[in-house]
Amino acid sequence: MTHGVEAATSGSELADPASRKPLRNFVLVSTMVSTAYLIFIVSVLASTFIEEFNLSRFELGLIGSLNTAVGAITAPATGRLTDRIGPRLSSVTAQLIAAFGLALVALSQSVIMLIIAACILGLPQGWGNPTTNALIAERVEPGRRGTITGIKQSGVTLGVFLAGLTLPSLAEALGWRWAVGLYAAAFAVIGLAPLLLPAHVAPFTTTDATTADVESKPYNQRAVWLIALYAFLMGTSGGAISRFLALFAEEEAGLSKSTAGLVVALTGIGGMAARIGAGKLAEKRVAPLKLLSILALIGTTVSMLLMLTLEGGAWLLWPVAALFAIGHTAWNAVAMLAIILGVPKAHAGRASGAVMVGFLGGLAVGAPLAGLTIDATDSYQPVWVATLVLAAVAAMVAEFARRTAA
């Protein structure tokens, strides 16, 4: 079996000793936070980057998109590498690369250096989900995977929350370079935590009754690619919104940088709860693909409210943040759970990589196109309309995937 898993002990039900479960969960969350942190920095410090590097909105979006494009291109390879060397070592490697890349961002004196750093950070960007999905498949018992998947996916939204809450004040007090550098140093230390986990674990000998039917009928390749298409559509829509939400709040709604940061932080803290809840719901009560369709429809309401903000008032940004946390963040946990439950464990890494190609590809396309549209029209409205359409199409794709997998 891959990555040197030892033979199961008689009657064994738990892969990790109980005392190591908090550490395992910490590793799952920290991997998701660190590997995706650049896109949160670009979003929260958007106006600072525009001033520091004399960027247009299109160029700002392009930097984030280069990061996610590299992640999309390399995700299949890192997924296969995860299946080969195991999720434990993959987590360490991805987090240390993320720390190195953020240090380069903090030291960047030119746009070229910033672009190089963003491309380097693309590697861990595409590696986070294959690594953590494989870790869950290897070390979390059936029946708990939905909740744990939600917890690990909440790492991304925890990153959004931390960035929105801390970066504006740290940048004001210390300068943005020191603010980013502090996170780089923290991730370098935290990235070693997976080494404290047992190197080898016993496979599970039992399957929870509520997940047995799903696991005994694995998704075919068409269903996996439809989930990847869904991820592309939601990534494009959500990426366009999240990358420019803080800037929209400042430029059009008249909020201060700190208040705009709090709006972004709310999408993060709300997304943490939404991903955990959605993961548990998808494993126990609602089929993952059906829930994906519902969440995409909730995503359309975010775009509707954004279109009404200029006439209705800046207060609408608070329900926007709450609904974004549900529709545009919780789906990621459900999609990853669909792969964990619906794909054989030996192929979880590469299947996750395929979905990440879609998601990161959507992020790569959405942000620069949104920035270009805003620059060309001097308005955010066309972007909000486009994100509504994309989320609506995603809902239809999820429904088609559900029927294909039935």
Which features characterize this protein?
406 residues; mainly alpha; Growth Hormone, Chain: A; 15 helices; 81% helix; globular; disordered N terminus
Main beta sheet: strand number and arrangement? none
Broad shape:
globular
Residue windows where pLDDT falls under 50 for at least 5 positions: 1-14, 208-216
CATH class: Mainly Alpha
Structural class: mainly alpha
Q: What's the domain count?
A: 1
Question: Ends: how far apart?
Answer: 30 Å
Radius of gyration: 20 Å
The strand count comes to: 0
Task: Note the total helix count.
Answer: 15
Instruction: Give the overall pLDDT as a whole number.
Output: 84
Q: Can you put this structure into words, describing what you see?
A:
With 406 residues, the protein is mainly alpha-helical. It has one domain: MFS general substrate transporter like domains (Growth Hormone, Chain: A, Up-down Bundle). The chain has 15 helices and no strands. α2 (37-44) crosses α7, α5 (87-107) runs antiparallel to α6 and α6 (111-139) runs antiparallel to α7. 59% of the residues are buried. Mean pLDDT is 84; it is low at 1-14 and 208-216.
Summarize the structure.
With about 400 residues, the protein is mostly helical.
What topology does this entry show?
Layout: H1 21-35, H2 37-44, H3 46-53, H4 57-85, H5 87-107, H6 111-139, H7 145-174, H8 176-190, H9 209-216, H10 221-251, H11 257-284, H12 288-312, H13 317-342, H14 348-377, H15 381-405
Helix pairs in contact: 1-5, 1-6, 1-7, 2-7, 2-10, 4-5, 4-6, 4-14, 5-6, 5-8, 6-7, 6-13, 6-14, 7-8, 7-11, 7-13, 10-11, 10-12, 10-13, 10-14, 10-15, 11-13, 12-13, 12-15, 13-14
